Amino acid sequence: MSGEETRAGLIGWPVEHSISPAMQNAAFQALGLDWHYDLLPAPPGEVGSLLAGLAARGYRGANVTVPHKQAVLPFLGRVAGEARAIGAANTLVLQDEGWAGHNTDAAGFIGALREGGFEPEGAAALVLGAGGAARAVVHALLSAGCRVAIHNRTAETARRLVAELGPAGGPRARVIPSPDALEPDAVDLLVNATPLGMGAAAGASPWPEPLPLPAHWTVYDLVYSPAETRLLARARAAGAAAVGGLGMLVHQGALSFELWTGQPAPLEVMWQAARQALGAAPSTVM
Ligand code: NAP
């Protein structure tokens, strides 16, 4: 790395298995930009002190991942509308007033969904999970004109999510007590926003095994490693459309790239680099 390079990096804990450096550096290289993306590990509680020294070290952009997407907000000079509504920032841009926080997870999810052939406007979605990723997904679906039902292991967390949506949720967002509380015909899209299907839970499916997956559903799994989760395999076997989570990772990264550089992201280059890096990465960090 030359001393003149502009730097960007991923703030999180742990981050060592992230595929974002491969994806972002391939994009910088493809456009001939003198930028470099690296890892910025920050244990819980240390995101503020890390951020305070970043500009002096040449950083102009950053991504933020678990566990800091919410914790970073008080340290920012500005929080853009969607990040404020979601309550989490995954992209930081250095501006005159300090670090500005954005959320590209939401638009990245919709971009990946549309790329997978699903149009959310006027559709009905069932989202499994109510954690950080689910918050972005629910906001994105509502903004795109979709109705959303949420089921979560801890119902109270889902209820809080819906309550915090305020007028943005209205009658279009609700909590359901069990995955099969809706008529299958009343659903077009199933989204897994839980970690079931990855890591130690690789064989698990967030959709109960005895329940069928109707052929007219589109199933989007936020998990992207393994590429073919148990849920996606079941969906495909049932004749449903099945889309893996790598597209969301690539699209959120592409939108971050555009915020930092002001240039259109080379999406195909990023897809290729992400697929290649994932082949070598044992874990699933952003
Ligand atoms: P999180 O904030 O920890 O939330 C996890 C959610 O999953 C919670 O609603 C939790 O329910 C539920 N859950 C956890 N273990 C469960 C289990 N054994 N059975 C049923 N529900 C369970 O995590 P997150 O950041 O939202 O991430 C969720 C998943 O999305 C992860 O796999 C992550 O890798 C993936 N993700 C992918 C992308 C992408 O770009 N593709 C982006 C972000 C996240 P409780 O409330 O009951 O704990």
Report on this structure.
The protein is α/β, with parallel strands linked by helices and 286 residues long. It is 34% helix and 20% strand. The chain is built from 9 helices and 12 strands. It has helices at residues 20-30, 47-54, 81-86, 105-115, 132-143, 155-165, 230-237, 246-261, 267-280; strands spanning 6-12, 35-41, 59-64, 78-79, 91-95, 98-102, 124-128, 147-151, 173-175, 189-192, 218-221, 241-243. Helix 1 (20-30) runs antiparallel to helix 9 and helix 8 crosses helix 9 (267-280). It is globular, with a radius of gyration of 19 Å. 46% of the residues are buried.
Report the order of strands and helices: EHEHEEHEEHEHEHEEEHEHH
**What share of the residues does DSSP label as strand, in percent?**
15-25%
What are the segments in which pLDDT stays under 50 over at least 5 consecutive residues?
A: none
* Dominant shape: globular
Features:
single chain; 286 residues; alpha/beta; six-stranded mixed beta sheet; six-stranded parallel beta sheet; 9 helices; binds NADP nicotinamide-adenine-dinucleotide phosphate
Summarize the helices and strands and which ones pair or pack.
Layout lengths: L5 E7 L7 H11 L4 E7 L5 H8 L4 E6 L13 E2 L1 H6 L4 E5 L2 E5 L2 H11 L8 E5 L3 H12 L3 E5 L3 H11 L7 E3 L13 E4 L25 E4 L8 H8 L3 E3 L2 H16 L5 H14 L6
Parallel strand pairs: 1-2, 1-3, 4-6, 7-8, 7-10, 8-9, 10-11, 11-12
Antiparallel strand pairs: 3-5, 5-6
The structure holds NADP nicotinamide-adenine-dinucleotide phosphate.
The site of NADP nicotinamide-adenine-dinucleotide phosphate (NAP) has 25 residues, from helix 5 and helix 8.
